[in-house]
Amino acid sequence: QVQLVESGGGLVQPGGSLRLSCVCSGSIFSSYDMGWYRQAPGKQRELVATFSRGGSTNYADSVKGRFTVSGDIALNTVYLQMNSLKPEDTAVYYCNADRKVGGSSWRYWGQGTQVTVSS
């Protein structure tokens, strides 16, 4: 069983920065692709950024150039550095771990951390 615990959310003014952390139980980076998702009130959960087992990254167009995803294998932690935050970035941010082997798949979620961008 994989456990993910997010932290680092909060209230920030437009243009500000936050860094989210996702601490993973065990050493899962070699087996799982990691991702950050977000869900704003009344909207569907959407992908923000991914950090693959091989270390490659991908971003939603809405956050490219502003957000950076990274991982620290020694600390079993994935980070999401968010700069130049906008009010539309306000959402609950979730950490995700995905693994697919043949016809089997595993997906785990953290409990989420609230990010509010407001003046």
Q: Any overview of this molecule?
A:
The chain has 119 residues and is an all-beta fold. The model has no long low-confidence stretch (mean pLDDT 94). The strands form 2 sheets. Strands 2, 4, 5, 6, 9, 10 and 11 form a 7-stranded mixed beta sheet that branches. Strands 1-3-8-7 form a 4-stranded antiparallel beta sheet, with no helix packed on it. It contains no helices and 11 strands. The protein is globular, with a radius of gyration of 14 Å.
Keywords:
four-stranded antiparallel beta sheet, seven-stranded mixed beta sheet, mainly beta, single chain, 119 residues, 0% helix
- What's the number of extended β-strand segments? 11
Our measurement of the CA-to-CA distance between the termini, rounded to an integer number of angstroms, reads 40 Å
Task: Categorize the overall geometry.
Answer: globular
The low-confidence parts are none
Percent in strands: over 45%
From the alpha carbons, calculate the radius of gyration and give it in angstroms: 14 Å
Instruction: Kindly report the average pLDDT value.
Output: 94
Helical coverage, percent range: under 10%
**Class derived from helix and strand content:** mainly beta
> What is the ordering of alpha helices and beta strands?
EEEEEEEEEEE
Biggest sheet details: 7 strands, mixed
Number of helices: 0
Summarize the structure.
It contains no helices and 11 strands. By secondary structure, it is mostly beta strands.
Secondary-structure topology with pairs:
Layout: E1 4-7, E2 10-12, E3 18-24, E4 33-39, E5 46-51, E6 57-59, E7 67-72, E8 77-82, E9 91-101, E10 104-109, E11 113-117
Parallel strand pairs: 2-11
Antiparallel strand pairs: 1-3, 3-8, 4-5, 4-9, 5-6, 7-8, 9-10, 9-11
